[in-house]
């Protein structure tokens, strides 16, 4: 697919209240590569990848509404369940497999991550950080599960069944024996947390995190 | 309505004669291939004097790159978007095909051919065998989905269409779409198989067998030679259609449409009249079907579907059928379709994923069962439109007019 005159502009997206995390994800993907977006929603990221990075971008999405909207926009999206259907993709069939804000909603996060690293040479994972200071205050001070813009559901109706913190995720990466190539944490205003700070600071200040992984 | 299906069984009605005429001289263009251009069938024999009846809509562009082949289902025909000459009813896919519709006759050159084995002008058992001057009847060799596709390819060669922009179809039409993509990948830019399967299931073969047995149990079938006797196995074919029609609908759909409501009466008759609306409906379906469809054609075309198992030709691995394919696919199924289930469509999608082909797949919520692909399903229309528009962009075809 040809580029369609769009460039990634993080600050413009931030100032317009757009999804900065999607820009960060897209920016980690090499132009012109083959990408599978797992949990592609209505296809916003697929569209971004196709139009700004010239990617051959395909999606898997569980919700029929998401698939219908995306396919009607001309995107290549398959209705399916990541927890099951990733098994059907052959090894090395994509350059990147992306899991954008979906890890916490999978039934088997470890299996999903392993599958991603089998199917793609790289995996990109973005997720809300449950270790963010605001979540900690909610639990510690208010004694309540956090409900924020990023995590807008009450505990009894949330699709997010496997929340983790940045530290937790780094632990999972070690468990599946993958390499962290890049990591970005975004604070609550969508700005990047400074790179040279230690993990525990990221874990406090990062409201969302984006990791680029590869097989060791 | 009486206790039995048919007032008088057997004798050919004026409608039969009208339908029968379509077999040799249809109300649509035909290509007659000479004996020097036989079609080699999977059954291992050459079919000489192949005739293919077809309809076209819209105009080919200068490069002849805007053609869409529509493949019809078991009892469909080439009259996709124009009046049917036998029934006088509108085309069977006017929901999807027409000016400004997703398969847009103002942008695309749409071709639909009656399938091999059919009874609307393409060679089938009711066609006159030029060698004998009599209808083929059971002398017609068994045909397969691949034979149907090869006959369509001969038609396209004749029409000067080297490459199709798209092949689209539902049910048995979808089987042909898959076969097209497997047999002629370089001739298919994109493919839209709807409510279909890469192989016919045991359950579906079983249903077909019931239908065929109903036809063959009718004494008017005459061992397949009914046309020579001036007869037609109406009762058997009507029962076959009634049974099949149940499989095209869902339990919820039947319940929504008919429930347990009685037909034009307040109390049951304590007899075997069509007391229930659903019975009356099925009888009507059976009766109107036999006026337009040839019983032997029904045997041949159901058989072709039974034999369809695309993976079998590729070492049992469906993905091998699509290996290296550059065709873009959009697969769609309906939640309440229990004849060609979403699981069947998922199997196609998994194979396409495994082969690396570009594929979209939508499971559409509907209570209309298998028939949904022929009915008013706005989500299907949106998906087909989005898929075809984006494929047209990629193929360098002009965009749709802003309406």
TrEMBL record, chain A:
User: Which InterPro entries does this chain map to?
Assistant: Methionine_synth_MetW, SAM-dependent_MTases_sf
Report TM segments.
Answer: none
UniProt cross-references to CDD domains, sorted A to Z: AdoMet_MTases (cd02440)
Q: Coiled-coil region(s) at which residues?
A: none
For this protein, the record's Pfam families field holds:
MetW
Q: Determine the domain of life of the protein's source.
A: Bacteria
Q: What is this protein called?
A: Methionine biosynthesis protein MetW
Organism, scientific name = Azorhizobium oxalatiphilum
TrEMBL record, chain B:
Annotated spans, Disordered: 1-27
Q: What is a GO molecular function of this protein?
A: homoserine O-acetyltransferase activity
Binding-site residues for substrate, renumbered to this chain:
241, 371
Q: Which reaction does it catalyse?
A: L-homoserine + acetyl-CoA = O-acetyl-L-homoserine + CoA
Q: Name one GO biological process term.
A: homoserine metabolic process
- Top-level taxon in the UniProt lineage: Bacteria
Q: What InterPro entries is this protein classified in?
A: AB_hydrolase_1 (IPR000073), AB_hydrolase_fold (IPR029058), HAT_MetX-like (IPR008220)
Q: What class of enzyme is it?
A: transferase
The listed locations are: Cytoplasm
Q: Does the keyword Cytoplasm apply?
A: yes
- Alphabetical UniProt keywords: Acyltransferase, Amino-acid biosynthesis, Cytoplasm, Methionine biosynthesis, Transferase
Q: Which Pfam families match?
A: Abhydrolase_1
Q: In which pathway does it act?
A: Amino-acid biosynthesis; L-methionine biosynthesis via de novo pathway; O-acetyl-L-homoserine from L-homoserine: step 1/1
- Known role: Transfers an acetyl group from acetyl-CoA to L-homoserine, forming acetyl-L-homoserine.
| Protein name according to UniProt | Homoserine O-acetyltransferase
Q: What is the lineage of its organism?
A: Bacteria, Pseudomonadati, Pseudomonadota, Alphaproteobacteria, Hyphomicrobiales
**Name of the encoding gene:** metX
